[in-house]
Structures are given as structure tokens and as C-alpha cells.
């Protein structure tokens, strides 16, 4: 009778610990789901804000500093809307400066694009791994 009572005590203790683990798991799962929903809800506004900040940082073209005597050209360069008449009035040296600046901008933007694509691929890989983990946990 002592052995059977000790076995039954062990069984209830194990069941209690398993139910505590299950409850802890369910609580943790609900918490993670709530955090994920919040993060997803905030992702779009945060991305918009980041794009806006990056646009403001890029607005000023370094060519504008090289052509201070032509403020309308500087503004057009920032807006990327040069007119043929503006280009006609410029010297070959000034045009070469603009061409060189555009080439350097293209190169830096291409490098940035490659870096962002690599980051995107890493994030997709992480997301796929997380989805597999979630699927395993839900099974």
C-alpha cells in the first residue's frame, strides 16, 4: 500500500508539472502571438517613416554645392527635373560634374540595393525557419 500511494503521488506530481508546462507553453504562445500581431501592425507605419527619413537625407545633391551661382539648377537637380534649356546654358565642365555625380549616385544606390536584397533574403530565410518551427509546435 505504501508503494502504490507513492506511485500515485508521483503520478499526480508529474501530471501537475506537465499541466504547468502546458499552461506555461500556452501562456507563452499567446504572449508571442500578441507580440507578433503588434509588430505586424507597426511594420507598415514604421517602414513609411523610415522611407520618409531616407528621402529627406538624400534630398540635397552634392552637385548643388558645386553650382551655388545657379540656385534654380540646384533645385531642379534635387527634384530630378532638369529642362533642356537649363542644360544648354551650362558649360561642359558643369555638365561633366553633373554626369559624374549621377554616376556616383547610381553606383551607391546599386550597392545599397544589393545590401538590402541580401538582408531581405536573410529575413525570408529566418521567416521560413520560424514558420516551420511554428508548424512543428502547433502539431
What would your notes on this structure say?
This protein is 88% helix and 0% strand. The longest helix is centred in the first third of the chain and has 57 residues, at 2-58. The model is unreliable at 1-12 (pLDDT under 50). It is elongated, with a radius of gyration of 31 Å. The two termini are 40 Å apart. It has two domains: 12-57; 61-138. It contains five helices and no strands. Residues 92-126 form a coiled coil. Keywords: Coiled coil. This is SCHI1 protein.
Q: Overall pLDDT, averaged?
A: 78
Supply the number of helical segments: 5
Task: Please write the string of helix (H) and strand (E) elements.
Answer: HHHHH
Helix content: over 70%
How would you classify the helix and strand content by structural class? mainly alpha
Unreliable stretches covering 5 or more consecutive residues:
1-12
Q: For the terminal residues, how far apart are their CA atoms?
A: 40 Å
The rounded Rg comes to 31 Å
Number of domains: 2
What is the makeup of the main sheet?
A: none
Q: Please give the number of β-strands.
A: 0
Amino acid at each position: 500500500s505504501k508503494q502504490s500511494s507513492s506511485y500515485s503521488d508521483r503520478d499526480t506530481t508529474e501530471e501537475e508539472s506537465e499541466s504547468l508546462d502546458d499552461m506555461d507553453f500556452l501562456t507563452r504562445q499567446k504572449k508571442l502571438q500578441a507580440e507578433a500581431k503588434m509588430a505586424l501592425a507597426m511594420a507598415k507605419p514604421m517602414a513609411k517613416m523610415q522611407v520618409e527619413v531616407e528621402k529627406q537625407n538624400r534630398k540635397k545633391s552634392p552637385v548643388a554645392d558645386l553650382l551655388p551661382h545657379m540656385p534654380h539648377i540646384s533645385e531642379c537637380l534635387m527634384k530630378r527635373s532638369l529642362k533642356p534649356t537649363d542644360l544648354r546654358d551650362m558649360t561642359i565642365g558643369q555638365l561633366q560634374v553633373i554626369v559624374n555625380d549621377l554616376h556616383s549616385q547610381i553606383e551607391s544606390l546599386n550597392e545599397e540595393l544589393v545590401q538590402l536584397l541580401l538582408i531581405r533574403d536573410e529575413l525570408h530565410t529566418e521567416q521560413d525557419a520560424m514558420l516551420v518551427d511554428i508548424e512543428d509546435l502547433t502539431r
